[in-house]
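RETRY 2/3 - previous attempt timed out on the joint model. Re-submitting the same 404-residue input unchanged.
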Amino acid sequence: MDYHAIFAGAIDRLHGEGRYRVFIDILRNRGAYPNARCFAGHNGPKPIIVWCSNDYLAMGQHPAVIAAMEEALHDVGAGSGGTRNIGGNTHYHVALEAELADLHGKEASLLFTSGYVANEATLATLGRLLPGAIVFSDSLNHASMIAGIRHAGCEKRIFRHNDVAHLEALLAEAPAEAPKVIAFESVYSMDADIAPIAAICDLAERYNALTYLDEVHAVGMYGARGGGVAERDGVAHRVSIIEGTLGKAFGVMGGYIAASRAIVDCIRSYAPGFIFTTSLAPVLVAGALASVRHLKVSSAEREALHQSAARLRQRMIAAGLPVMPAESHIVPLMVGCPVKAKRMSDILLAEYGFYVQPINYPTVPRGTERLRFTPGPAHTEAMMDDLVRALVEVSDRLMLPLAA
Ligand code: PLP
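RETRY 2/3 succeeded.
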């Protein structure tokens, strides 16, 4: 067996399809986001503007978050020292879970080491705990939800993206007595659209199903206190399990679910992905706690984010760039070819100092490769003007069609 040839062949296939992933080596400038420096392909760091970070509100640079992390580091040291069950259940973890339960109006919440792990561990465990369960999953659900559903080993039905009529047809076909879980996201981060949460809750109530809502790209940014789209739409109390991340708008790291005490207790007690791993470092939890608390009472960052997204979108439309229709804070620009998307991103970085990562299959379907912009509160109008000018020039050079 020529192992080396198999691995080399797998990588060659990615090169052949133009979707070999190159990680850009950067450091963000403390307190000065979206300014950063880039170490790729130059002698020494070169200043860049980051346009693709999921630190949507720049909370990773917020003085209150940094101060809380510094204080925790000096107070209790680096790691947690154990799993939650064996020495790693710090007072920070307990306080953050109380804060997150309150954020979503739920009885309890549970921390995981990432949003990915939260989805995988919770869905896999739910499916195993409910005998004969059927999971109804949106066709564009994130890889972590798909992995969880697969590991649950239960039946699944895929409904067309955000298609309530299709979901209803699938629910109606399923045996009435089977336990049902509807798994979906609020903001779909690659297409920038938003699920009809209330209509899905109506169906869940009609067909006696649980609802599992991934609000990873919404927590901190939607709702009066940053409780996500479910809070904004006044339906959080109708969703059985809300899942979120601490690594995007909250600017730190980690994931969580919020739900009834009974559900949280079950996941805490049965999910291997929660049980058998070292808990989050206290310094991370302290930072997340400061961030969640800040965004509960401050809407300034949220308002600035939505303004920024609207401004950039407007400018791109005015310049004739093929910006995708969107209902959220994300601004995706369609390219439709992995090679051109990568080339465009390379030129923007090397010649203009703008960093935007190309998004390829399997993150998005083939032929819909895109550049995904995430303007935040600190991206200025001058930065946007420069970016749009650069995008028009590079589109021209690569002979990419501008929108009609
Ligand atoms: N869910 C969705 C929809 C995501 O886009 C992502 C992440 O990138 C995750 C979950 C995973 O969250 P995390 O980055 O905290 O692991």
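The chain has 14 helices and 14 strands. Closing ticket.
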